[in-house]
């Protein structure tokens, strides 16, 4: 059976891809964070956590951009021990913990725009898609650090999905693949 290798099983030591890794670790990951801040993607989590007031900005699926950044940052942290990146990641994980609702729900679009509304249009809203990227980021972070805070956030979200949808019929499937591979990795 084929499987994706873990971070522990692959090391790129030179050449084109190592140069890209160096560039990403030194510059791109911080530039991407600045873009997430500039587009107010991170502010959406602050609003959902009750730390900031205002309106939600961006596409309804923009949470996934933050989670994809977190996944990339976690993978970079495996090979590059940059204290600034570790702090940025830790602070963002703390923010996610504050934004997540007590039962595990975490989707800023509905939390801010439609409080109390969930799972209304799975084919369009990308709730499962966003949670899938959260879960993948959590797995990468755990593989890198062995810390469980983000993994616990992801597990809580996954437990909610199982509770809500384990016995559902096919019309309750998501409209965008992602959650499936994430749950396998979890």
Structure description:
This protein has about 190 residues and is an all-alpha fold. It has one domain. It has nine helices and no strands. The radius of gyration is 17 Å and the shape is globular. The two termini are about 20 Å apart. The model has no long low-confidence stretch (mean pLDDT about 95).
Task: Briefly say what this structure is.
By secondary structure, this protein is mostly helical. 63% of the residues lie in helices and 0% in strands.
Protein topology:
Layout: H1 16-38, H2 41-48, H3 63-79, H4 83-99, H5 108-113, H6 122-125, H7 127-145, H8 149-165, H9 179-185
Helix pairs in contact: 1-3, 2-4, 3-4, 3-7, 7-8, 7-9
Keywords:
186 residues, mainly alpha, globular
Low-confidence stretches: none
List the domain count as a whole number: 1
What is the helical fraction, as a range of percent? 55-70%
- Average pLDDT score: 94
**Class of secondary structure makeup:** mainly alpha
Number of helices: 9
Please state the CA-atom Rg, rounded to the nearest Å: 17 Å
The termini sit apart by 18 Å
Strand tally = 0
Give the DSSP E fraction (strand runs of 2 or more residues).
under 5%
Kindly report the oligomeric state of this protein: single chain
Tell me the major beta sheet: none
What spatial form do the alpha-carbon principal axes imply?
globular
Order of helices and strands: HHHHHHHHH
């Amino acid at each position: 059976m084929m499987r994706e290798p873990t971070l522990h099983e692959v090391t790129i030591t030179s050449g084109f891809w190592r140069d890209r890794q160096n560039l990403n670790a030194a510059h791109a990951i911080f530039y991407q964070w600045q873009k997430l801040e500039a587009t107010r993607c991170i502010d959406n989590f602050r609003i959902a956590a009750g730390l900031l007031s205002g309106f939600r900005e961006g596409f309804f699926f923009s949470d996934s951009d933050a989670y994809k950044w977190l996944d990339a940052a976690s993978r970079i942290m495996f090979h590059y021990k940059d204290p600034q990146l570790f702090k940025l990641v830790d602070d963002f994980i703390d923010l996610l913990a504050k934004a997540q609702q007590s039962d595990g729900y975490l989707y800023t679009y509905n939390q801010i725009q439609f409080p109390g509304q969930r799972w209304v249009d799975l084919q369009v809203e990308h709730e499962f898609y966003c949670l899938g990227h959260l879960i993948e980021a959590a797995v990468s972070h755990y593989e890198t650090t062995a810390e469980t805070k983000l993994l616990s956030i992801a597990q809580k979200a996954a437990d909610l999905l199982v509770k809500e949808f384990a016995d559902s019929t096919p019309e309750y499937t998501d409209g965008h693949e992602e959650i499936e591979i994430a749950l396998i990795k979890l």
